[in-house]
Amino acid sequence: VDFFNQINMLYGTITEFCTETSCPVMSAGPRYEYHWADGTNIKKPIKCSAPKYIDYLMTWVQDQLDDETLFPSKIGVPFPKNFMSVAKTILKRLFRVYAHIYHQHFDSVMRLQEEAHLNTSFKHFIFFVQEFNLIDRRELAPLQELIEKLGSKDR
């Protein structure tokens, strides 16, 4: 929930720069393009703009977090058997927002003087997902160089 809130807030600061015109596809640099499918309403992945993709993503994550059968809020109610799978999917998709921000909007982040906050948030996110092996290494490829820098001892 904390990662979702942080990413939502960080993306919210650059929405004026991430438009249908400036970001007609959801990408993380020229080699990575993401298509949206939630498995329920949109079963076959669709190509859409970054703002549309991120809107779909954030709405979908919020729906998952609000689902009492997935994220029980009452003490003693167990998490479902598929919890880890759902959590991994959520984190994989949230990573894509970081990747998009770093690749397509880092200049705006710099102009807004938010890079320290973005880097701190991302570093916390990456350390968490790596500690518990929650995102496949292939999925992290768009920001692998940054991940290595953030994790280096001399930093």
Question: How would you portray this structure in words?
Answer:
With 155 residues, the protein is mainly α. It has one domain (1-152): Butyryl-CoA Dehydrogenase, subunit A, domain 3. The chain is 53% helix and 3% strand. The protein has helices at residues 2-12, 50-66, 83-111, 115-131, 144-151; strands at 26-27, 33-34. The chain has a two-stranded antiparallel sheet with strand order 1-2. Strand 1 (26-27) and strand 2 form a beta hairpin. Helix 1 (2-12) runs parallel beside helix 3 (83-111) and helix 3 runs antiparallel to helix 4. The protein is globular. The two termini are 28 Å apart. Keywords: Kinase, Metal-binding, Transferase, Zinc. This is MOB1A kinase. It comes from Columbina picui (Picui ground-dove).
What is the compact description of this entry?
It is built from 5 helices and 2 strands; from the N terminus they run H-E-E-H-H-H-H.
